[in-house]
């Protein structure tokens, strides 16, 4: 896992959530999951200066890591940025005087990659709508990362802002198809297909993955389903993903250590709520014992997310030893491979796993899989025995 260079993150990115305007949410178009995540991170990065700066910048490597994508695969990033520039956003809303306002704009007016930096801009009209403080939904990037389906993330974005009212209200099916990005498809004109392929899977993932629970209800005109709404309530099992801005967590020594390390207030509280003070402190001790880490906050992020760096991983003072050292070598070997080679490596390793639990753990955690530690080392030793022989 690569380190996120947090010293390059803006104050908005450190905040970890984004105010996303209702108009933009409703018309974000036929975006893939990666494009939808990318759109949210770009908006978060630019949010504080949307109305004052004509263009925005973010380190391309940081951008990839924040959407959970391999930071060396710039071609996929280029394709996703191209998709955002080619996607049309449309809004239809009331202005301050109650007059109807309709508008259309590309999601990004331009984007470019140069010297490892992604530069991009919004059209002035869209930037104004995105920054409108009167109506917005709070999109938590920690929750966003958990989604594996674009339809599910789209449903979450469009439902979450109604959590306090408990219902989205009735949407005509034509509007719902637009929100899900399946308008224009003859296949999804049939509600049976729309329900089986879009609604049911998206509802299941939102309820499993996010901090809300949604229940669809339909209304018919004659014998044909014409409208849909979603009843919404908080998910008590995943409510921890909603970060409390209270003072309680700020009083502990571990919180102060995190802040001294350069971790933002919101992220520090998020980690302490999710993992507890004891686990966070253990991970911080693990990172401190590595020596020469260029981005300790990024390394700590990886340790908490991927589950390494616990008591069993804590090494003696550098050089690294045991599983942590093997893991570091494996990740260096992985990063040296091309994206095509990395995909092939994963498929080859998966074919060697016969235990369903081991396969599931690898599919979830990749080369960080704790259940497959020995098998992973053996696999990479076969591919590059010199890397481990030198260490020994």
From TrEMBL:
Keywords: Plasmid
GO molecular function, one term: DNA-directed DNA polymerase activity
InterPro entries: Initiator_Rep_WH1, WH-like_DNA-bd_sf, WH_DNA-bd_sf
Signal peptide: none
Domain Initiator Rep protein WH1 span(s) in chain numbering: 18-159
GO terms for biological process, alphabetical: DNA replication initiation
Family: Belongs to the initiator RepB protein family.
Name used for this protein in its record: Replication protein RepB
Organism: Pacificitalea manganoxidans
